[in-house]
Predict the 3D structure of the following.
Amino acid sequence: MTEATVAQQRRILALVTDLFFTLKIGDTAKSVGLPIHFVGSAEEFLDSIRKARPGLVIADLTLDGIDLAALFEELAAEAHQVPVPILGYTTHADWKRTSPLHDRCTKVVTKDTLSRSLAELMQQLIQQG
């Protein structure tokens, strides 16, 4: 396996638009040596999936204006037989509202848990993929 292939498998794709979490996720990925790419729209997300299958997807399940259920369905189709682990995060207040998306994710956590345990979650899920 080439170094470029290993880097691609360890690449994180983040569907996140919140500035605080963009900084938090970006800094954490950098600190654990994982390349990351942020997108803010369904089109960018699918384009990135088509260019290179990431080793992990991080998705803000509270995003407005994006049909995440349809997007996750498309991701499953694009990933073919090799599923991509998805770390979804939500708020305590939105847990019930976002619950239909939870079964599409490998793991779902609250924003508080994400903030506290992000490095461990990244490393754990990227190794599963």
Q: What stands out?
A: The helical segments are 3-9, 19-31, 42-51, 68-79, 95-102, 111-128. The beta strands are 12-15, 36-39, 56-60, 86-90, 107-110. The radius of gyration is 14 Å.
